[in-house]
Design a protein that fits this description.
- It is a single chain.
- With 221 residues, this protein is an alpha+beta fold.
- It contains 7 helices and 8 strands.
- Helices cover 42% and strands 18% of the residues.
- The protein has a 6-stranded mixed β-sheet.
- α2 packs across α7 and α4 packs parallel to α5.
Length: 221
């Protein structure tokens, strides 16, 4: 009888724990788009911005070609799980998208210009992907840290939709947290220039963007 009582109690506690975890998971999923944005403070005069636009190898290279951008870091954002990995995000079950953290000098390049770069460097109407990369982990997301940034994003997105006469695929999320990707993803285009993907997808995408916005590019030395 005592064993039965213990078993029932353990089962009850286990089920309650699972129910609580599931509730937390569902809450997190629902809160991704409605949470209060987290604003990242300036550090040594440098600001940070966050974007998702297909493969982060491509996006990293695009932003590092822009004047005022000190560094672009590949990682994950927009999901509901902690410590996402490349393998995990590729399942589509974490909610995270491949994203980049842009470290930039706001005295040289504005957030508004970074949003222009974002739209100019992708197919803005492609849903859940860019080019050959398909799936929710490759979806387009622009993250805002405050109301001013959200207003910039919404205004530019609406203007582009009107210009193209099409729906713009980019989602707009409040920024919560950026998870830095694995070391081998960082500076991938620069370190692997002869990779088939880099040659056939990443470099053409970079050159197409550079032809659209030559005025924002760093000078070549």
């Amino acid at each position: 009888m005592k064993k039965l009582i213990v078993l029932v109690a353990v089962t009850f506690l286990f089920n309650c724990k699972n129910a609580a975890q599931n509730a937390d998971s569902n809450t997190n999923k629902n809160d991704v788009k409605t949470a209060r944005p987290v604003e990242v403070a300036l550090e040594n005069g440098m600001a940070k911005a966050y974007f998702a636009s297909g493969c982060f190898w491509c996006v990293e290279a695009v932003y590092e070609s822009v004047k005022g951008v000190e560094e672009s870091i590949s990682g994950y954002a927009g999901g509901h799980t902690k410590n996402p990995t490349y393998a995990g995000s590729n399942t589509g079950r974490t909610g995270h998208a491949e994203a980049v953290e842009i470290i930039y000098n706001p005295k040289i390049v504005s957030f508004e210009t970074l949003v222009d770069v974002y739209f100019a460097s992708q197919n803005p109407t492609q849903v859940n992907g860019q080019g050959p990369d398909r799936g929710s982990q490759y979806r387009s997301i622009i993250f805002y840290q405050n109301d001013a940034q959200k207003q910039i994003i919404d205004t530019k997105k609406a203007a582009l939709a009107k210009k193209l006469g099409k729906t713009i695929a980019a989602e707009v999320y409040p920024f919560q947290k950026f998870w830095i990707g694995e070391d081998y993803h960082q500076n991938y285009e620069r370190l692997h220039p002869n990779s088939g993907y880099i040659q056939n997808v990443s470099i053409p995408r970079l050159r197409k963007f550079q032809a659209k916005m030559p005025e924002v590019l760093k000078e070549k030395h």
